[in-house]
Design goal:
Elements lengths: L1 H26 L3 H10 L3 H23 L5 E4 L12 E8 L4 E8 L2 E8 L2 E6 L4 E2 L5 E5 L6 E3 L5 E2 L2 E5 L3 E10 L2 E7 L4 H9 L7
Parallel strand pairs: 5-12
Antiparallel strand pairs: 1-11, 2-3, 2-7, 3-4, 5-6, 7-8, 9-10, 11-12
Length: about 210
């Protein structure tokens, strides 16, 4: 009986040590980074399709910029509004002086690809037909469709700091003015009203 108890205790200790060692490896030791990589790895098909659509978007911007036409719209985003999968975002850093922009494509906050286009990128509020104040950084976030437009100062409700208006990119097209590309944004939920406003804008000849 004593020998049996001893054997059981030894087995219990061995099992406990194995479990503890495994837990340490996965959650505290070298396996933590490996596990995190597995859980957050980007599926190959999402990576390839997203990078392909970013390339198309960049080419469309460049084609619009080199057009001699002005004060008109160009098609920019393919397969709108699902250009990129949910939880994707485009982080845009623009230089208004040098007229170029770096576009960073991220998925689940992991960088997929960067590209550069020869145009500053800003936004035009089609609700009041006004260009928003230019900022170096802005973001298009596909946590919903159509995607959100996020930029410091855009969406403030008067001077109430806590009051926010949610702006979305309202169209696959963008407005070209003086070699700057303006994303068309709106805070309206009236899809028909938005479409009617966009239809009044002339298409660029590219």
């Amino acid at each position: 009986m004593t020998q049996e108890i001893t054997n059981n205790v030894i087995k219990f200790v061995i099992v406990f040590v194995i479990i503890a060692a495994t837990a340490w490896f996965l959650f505290l030791g070298p396996g933590k980074q490996l596990l995190a990589g597995i859980l957050t790895s980007i599926p190959k098909e999402i990576r390839e399709e997203s990078e392909y659509r970013l390339d198309i978007t960049a080419r469309n911007i460049e084609r619009c910029v080199i057009s001699s036409d002005n004060n008109c719209t160009c098609d920019i985003f393919p397969s709108w509004p699902a250009t990129f999968v949910k939880d994707s975002k485009l982080i845009i850093t623009s230089n208004e002086t040098n007229k170029n922009s770096i576009i960073n494509l991220a998925y689940m906050d992991k960088n997929l690809k960067n590209t550069t286009v020869g145009s500053a990128i800003s936004a035009r509020d089609i609700d009041n037909s006004q260009n928003v104040i230019f900022k170096t950084k802005k973001e298009i976030n596909w946590k919903s469709e159509p995607p959100l437009f996020i930029q410091e100062g855009v969406g403030r409700k008067g001077f109430v700091v806590t009051g926010k208006i949610e702006y979305k990119v309202a169209s696959s097209s963008a407005y070209k003015e003086n070699n700057t590309i303006y994303l068309l944004i709106s805070s309206s939920d009236n899809a028909q009203e938005i479409e009617n406003k966009i239809k009044t804008m002339r298409k660029c000849v590219t």
